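ESCALATION

Customer reports they have been waiting on this structure for their group meeting. Please prioritize. Original submission:
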Amino acid sequence: MANNFFIKKCKAKTTLGFEVGIEEGEYEVSGDEPDQSAVKLRGKNVYEIKHAEFQKLKQQNLAVPES
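Update from on-call: job pushed to the front of the queue and completed.
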């Protein structure tokens, strides 16, 4: 299931362990379920980051769900 999030400019680790800079903007997010190891962010660019990294972004209010 995909959800839309507004993500502020930040850094996160990819599934391969590399740190990437994520541009601020609206993203379609898929894979945000506890049993998934990765979350895919689709916006102007596409990023695949670790599920734990996405949880950190949400806790820090860098990734906010759009209503």
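Sent to customer with the following note: The helical segments are 51-59.
Escalation resolved.
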